[in-house]
Amino acid sequence: MIKVLFVCLGNICRSPLAEAIFNHKIQALGLSRKFKSDSAGTSDYHIGELPDERSIKCANRKGLTITHRGRQVNRTDFRDFNYIIAMDDNNLRNLNNLKIKYNFPEKDIFLMRDFVAGWEGLPVPDPYYGGEEGFDEIFQILDESIESFLTKIKEVHQLYA
């Protein structure tokens, strides 16, 4: 089983939306039994909370459901997940510091938009301080990034529906 963890700061906006999009796509491809996904935050601000209501509304408008509860990245995530994907440079930096602290120096951490040609190095913007339109924008960014990510890992792992 291939395990994927999406990570943002508080685990209430971007990463739970990425998890929902990813789960929807793998289900549509008939690959649900080959993957496990989760999301987490680098901070402890929202542990146990539901995602931001704007993330939930955005997902619902697209026909997706989010049931995730906020959690913080922990040591076992570095052992258990094949792919850890950060939403921006701050998350990436925090995750790289944690992998050293937890003694997983060989673990690769990826930036979400690095899977789309021409978007390498760009962040998935944090929509928290904006309006609902920001959530629609990140949905589009995540949708395209996850589509490219899936294309890559299906190729790498030789997966076919």
CATH superfamily: Response regulator
CATH T-level topology: Rossmann fold
How many structural domains are formed by the residues?
1
Instruction: Estimate percent helicity.
Output: 40-55%
Q: Mean of residue pLDDT? A: 95
What Rg do the Cα atoms give?
15 Å
Count of individual beta strands: 4
Please provide the ordered H/E string of secondary-structure elements.
Answer: EHEHHEHEH
Percentage of residues in strands: 5-15%
Sheet with most strands: strand arrangement: 2-1-3-4
**Low-pLDDT sequence parts:** none
Can you tell me the CATH architecture? 3-Layer(aba) Sandwich
How would you describe the shape? globular
Helix-and-strand structural type: alpha/beta
Q: What is the CATH top level name?
A: Alpha Beta
Distance between the termini: 14 Å
Structural write-up:
- By secondary structure, the protein is α/β, with parallel strands linked by helices.
- The chain has a single domain (2-156), classed as Response regulator (Rossmann fold, 3-Layer(aba) Sandwich).
- The protein is 42% helix and 13% strand.
- The protein is built from five helices and four strands.
- α1 (14-28) crosses α5 and α2 packs across α5 (132-156).
- It is globular.
